[in-house]
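Troubleshooting log. The previous structure file for this entry was overwritten by mistake, so regenerating from the original sequence record. Sequence copied from the archived sheet and checked twice against the printout by T.R.
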Amino acid sequence: MVSTTHSTLEFRHKPARLNPSRLLAALVLCGGLAAGLSGCVGAAVGAGATVGVAAMDDRGVQGVARDAGLATRVRGKWLNYDLETGDTLAVDASVKVYNRRAMLTGTVKSEDIRAKAVRLTWEVEGIDEVINELSVGDSSVVDSAVDSWISAQLTAKMTFDKDVQAINYIIETENGVVYLLGQAQSQAELNRVLGHARAVSRVRDVVNHVQIKAPEAEKPADGKAS
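Regenerated output below.
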């Protein structure tokens, strides 16, 4: 978790309000946004904040909950596999889901385990796509502290960029490689995110799996949908 000192909000002349940008900033610095609305979110902003932040996501509350449930079911299958075989798939690999698209990252011990992770993910009903970014090698050489630092730096850059809706992105960093999943509002927004990622110190590469949001259908002058 990144430790950051905050200045105290001044409420002397006006009532306290937590606008969306401050809420997102609090989550980022708490580590909750990058971790998929988990960790210290509840402690930081109260029991109702997770639902409020999820509502800001393009997927809405139900979509966020659906994707979180899919990811949990994948991890459950991985864990059962580990218990049966003695492997460490659930420890070495990570799964993030956005709009039913599952992105697998991490470093596993063999090609067989890599293939098994993909097969088990596809077995979860509701997964529409599996993005396999798993590497094969020695996970002990991965500097997880540096990877966490990179993710935190990028998350902060995106959150404080007024032209980026950071809530719609998932960031995973593995061995200095940044993997991005989510939905951009436009190509211009995505270009800003990619630029932020490439500008973070110690990033070796950026792998983009972000989709661009389809434009809404134009309405006629009377305001009725065609």
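The beta strands are 93-98, 101-108, 129-136, 169-174, 177-184, 205-212. Archived copy saved in two places this time.
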